[in-house]
């Protein structure tokens, strides 16, 4: 959906979580491509100059509050903002052994990573359908394809939004609206410093979790840039039609080919070995 296509001369894009990391890079790239860009942040008034992209209109949105999501979408409509491209990027990261994850924190993660983005999509898709054009991009994770121990809640949220996108494609594509998922591998965005970790320091899972986090932090420091992921998001926005899934980083797309070719038990052992899980990981 580029400015030179049959879509409006200046498409309007909404990017959630546009004040850092992938969202910031996506917002910048869409502005460069001539889009009108609305970016969200929990508190835009507190954003510094480096957290803002010139030309982006910042609006407050807390995906943890589904009523607030409804008010946000209503505000867009009241202001005459017709969204052509929705990039559901905002989300949180969480780690912990399944046994030790506090249920309220899991519920929070699902609201932010799944229910908030899905509800926002529900509210904006009708306008796209009525206009006969639209793109919705879910920013997922390669962990939805290659699950990792101690990341079960996060993996589940990313698998969930991918499932929504893959199934709803068949509902919306006849109306000119395409849903797709971009799955980054390890990305150097500093997210390791913002990750929520739930662990009992002397518990049975402590050693395995520490080892996994050590390897995970190293992988993210050496990961692909947010700009490279943003370029993949742009491919999904401008492709006609876009593919169901785009993967970037961590050896993609070659590792996805191997994932389809190898038995699941082999893939489990490879992932466990990469993250140093050893006796704390998969046996067999």
TrEMBL record:
Source superkingdom: Bacteria
GO CC annotation, single: membrane
Coiled coil: none
A single MF term (Gene Ontology): oxidoreductase activity
InterPro entries (alphabetical): NAD(P)-bd_dom_sf, Sc_DH/Rdtase_CS, SDR_fam
Keyword Oxidoreductase: yes
This protein's UniProt keywords: Oxidoreductase
PANTHER family in the record: DEHYDROGENASE/REDUCTASE SDR FAMILY MEMBER 7B, DEHYDROGENASE_REDUCTASE SDR FAMILY MEMBER 7B
UniProt similarity note: Belongs to the short-chain dehydrogenases/reductases (SDR) family.
Name of the protein this chain belongs to: Short-subunit dehydrogenase
Organism: Nocardioides aurantiacus
